[in-house]
Amino acid sequence: MCSLLRGFYSLVYPRVCRLCDGVRVQAPSWWCESCLEELWQTQPVSETAPVCPDVSLNAGQPLGGNLLLMAIGPYEGRWRQEIRQFKFHGDIELGRAMGHVLWSRIVRRFTAEQRTVPKASDWVIIGAPSSPSRNAGRGFEPGEILAQGLSLASGISVQSGFLRRLEGLAQRDAPARNRVENAQLIQPACDQWTHWPDWAKCVILVDDVATTMASMHRMADILYASGIETVVGAVAGRTPLTLVDPPA
After folding, report:
1. Residue 180 in contact with residue 56, Cβ under 8 Å?
2. Cβ atoms within 10 Å, residue 135
3. Domain regions of the chain by residue span
4. By C-alpha distance, which of 79, 70, 74 is closest to 112?
5. How many angstroms separate the CA atoms of 148 and 155, rounded?
6. What are phi and psi of 28, to 5 degrees?
7. So what family is this one in (predicted)?
8. H or E element in which residue 127 lies
9. Facing residues of 125 across strands?
10. Could you give phi then psi for residue 5, rounded to 5 degrees?
């Protein structure tokens, strides 16, 4: 409903940045380059990200080593409100627009490091799974919506049904240690792997928010064990590492 009303409104009034409320922007984005750049600079959002050692299950040892993570910005302030508008109020258009921004971040990072930018010939995109009950309540999978936006911007295909999350303690009610334990509820959907495209050796893992990084590392471990050669993470928001138990 939000997307439909906004689409009608945009026919009459010009689209302006939702963060600064002043600069005109062009679809599909809802944020000006100045605000997005400020988000990028607020925190090192392109980083090699270990699981927070304070919440590791193995005597302080990070789970799965390091994982390259790219985020639009920190999960705080007005950007946190934007992500919540997407996640909890069903603003699908915002989610897909975030996927477009994520692609620009990936291109920026890979170009800066003189690495080959991901291509549709050997990369695929996978959205992080939520529990069935949360999906039923929301009516959509946030990771899948972000993945769709990223796919539209990049031309890289989305592969669905290869990972699943079993029911567990609700993430937003869980302390950091329980979040790490909950990550083990992510499992391969074994009946789907026979359909995995042989040419796909690299994966972009997409999620809405990274907190302890436990879920990202769990998914990466599953993918590496299946024979995938390269996995990178892309999220809309990264919880500041000082917030071990962030608010919902």
Report:
1. yes
2. 15
3. 42-238
4. 70
5. 10
6. -90, 0
7. Belongs to the ComF/GntX family.
8. strand 123-127
9. 158, 204
10. -65, -40
Comparing CA positions, the residue from 43, 59, 49 lying closest to residue 217 is 49
**Please, are residues 207 and 217 in contact by the beta-carbon 8 Å criterion?**
no
Q: What is the residue-level pLDDT of the chain in tens, covering all 248 positions?
A: 555 555 555 554 568 999 998 889 988 889 999 999 999 887 654 455 555 444 433 333 334 456 788 999 999 999 999 999 999 998 999 999 999 999 999 999 899 889 999 999 999 999 998 877 776 777 888 999 999 999 999 999 999 888 877 766 555 555 555 555 666 667 676 555 557 788 889 999 999 998 888 888 888 888 888 888 899 999 999 987 654 443 34
Answer CATH for 42-238 from 3.40.1130, 2.40.128, 3.40.50, 3.40.720: 3.40.50
Phi, psi of 133 (to 5 degrees): -70, -40
| Structure-token pair, residue 161 | 């049904």
Give the Cα separation of 207 and 220 in Å (integer): 12
Write out the two tokens for 66.
């390091």
Give the global pTM: 0.80
d(CA 142, CA 161): 14
d(C-alpha 128, C-alpha 125), whole Å = 10
Residue type for position 211:
T
Instruction: Report DSSP state, residue 194.
Output: G
Burial 27-36 (b: 16+ CB within 10 A, else e): ebbbbbeebb
Three-state SS at 36: helix
